[in-house]
């Protein structure tokens, strides 16, 4: 019996995908239009709006913001709690909020980046299992870049730790905020919904510490990035591999898996799976994508795999199709055609959310390159070659060391 016959064609196995859900927040801006109603024949006198002048930000916040956004970036070292367990975080963040670093918990480690306003992690199965409890199938996300679940690292890295974002929040700070000491240094304490920022009370008002809000309440010591070139050297290759990064915040209900154009086809076998977005339930998030990952086996022998992704339409339902064209499938099918007999095959597949389309990676890399050029250009020029004629010696960049310890509790 040839592959796909005897009820095999048009059927197959599918695995229900239970992916941790996230919450999609919709922000609605409401404007008010003032209307004047008049009666009688007389024209109403023209009312000129009274000019309003917003209070200028305090001088110290202007200086602090300039210092934050014109530097080489910031390094954050601290500890957060995930699932009741401590996780060490080491992050380097550019002035605009791009970030790269690691999360370490015992022997488990996760790589972290932030780009395009989102945070992504790449970690093994143990890290996903132990520190992303809301993710039902950690094996779907382990070993690949995935959008960070809300529990890891527990806050929005670009918004909370990005120097430009911090500078905007400081502009709303009072002229005389409360003070406390950070390792003996007098500091202004600026509280925002996202975090508390401890800024040195003395000019140039360097950022000393951050206490992010939320249940994990991570605390970070802060230091300037000493080697921005090394930061971008680590960040860029990571961003280059973001194509196909998954999104655990999207959940799908898959339908019945079917085969098409497989019987006697040595070129390949197509797998189709219908899927419906089930979470979030209040609309389709902007840019939401569904990704199909399928594999075909025969009596336990792998014949090949395939994958595809598509944008989720407004009605939330779509059919995903991909074709296995591996050498193993072609060889197996030729053997089946040359040697009549029974050759059953089956497929397994799952549908997950996709955070980054492969076609969008170039735009993300361009953003990294633009900021790298701006930051490196703003760095002080290195000393010129020795006048004695001796050959110059290339020196490695100095190691980055956090200059402040964990802040004292008030």
Helix-strand layout with pairing:
Elements: H1 59-69, E1 74-82, E2 85-93, E3 99-105, E4 108-115, E5 118-123, H2 125-131, E6 146-147, H3 157-161, H4 163-170, E7 179-182, E8 185-191, E9 195-200, E10 207-212, E11 219-224, H5 228-240, E12 246-247, E13 251-254, E14 258-260, E15 269-279, E16 289-298, E17 301-311, E18 317-324, H6 327-338, E19 346-354, H7 361-378
Antiparallel strand pairs: 1-2, 1-11, 2-3, 3-4, 4-5, 5-6, 7-8, 8-9, 9-10, 10-11, 12-19, 13-15, 14-15, 15-18, 16-17, 16-19
Helix pairs in contact: 1-4, 5-7
Shape annotation: elongated
Distance between the termini: 77 Å
Mean model confidence by pLDDT: 81
The proportion of residues forming helix, as a percent range, comes to 10-25%
Structural class: alpha+beta
Placed side by side, the strands forming the largest sheet appear as 6-5-4-3-2-1-11-10-9-8-7
Largest sheet: 11 strands, antiparallel
Low-confidence parts: 1-45, 386-410
Topology, number of strands: 19
Strand content: 25-35%
- Oligomeric form: single chain
Q: From the alpha-carbon coordinates, what is the Rg to the nearest angstrom?
A: 28 Å
Number of discrete helical segments:
7
Task: Walk me through the structure.
The protein is an alpha+beta fold. The protein is built from seven helices and 19 strands. Strands 6-5-4-3-2-1-11-10-9-8-7 form an eleven-stranded antiparallel β-sheet. Strands 12-19-16-17 form a four-stranded antiparallel β-sheet. Strands 13, 14, 15 and 18 form a four-stranded antiparallel β-sheet that branches. Strand 1 and strand 2 form a beta hairpin. Helix 1 runs antiparallel to helix 4 and helix 5 packs antiparallel against helix 7. It is elongated. The termini are far apart. The relative contact order is 0.18. The N terminus and C terminus are likely disordered.
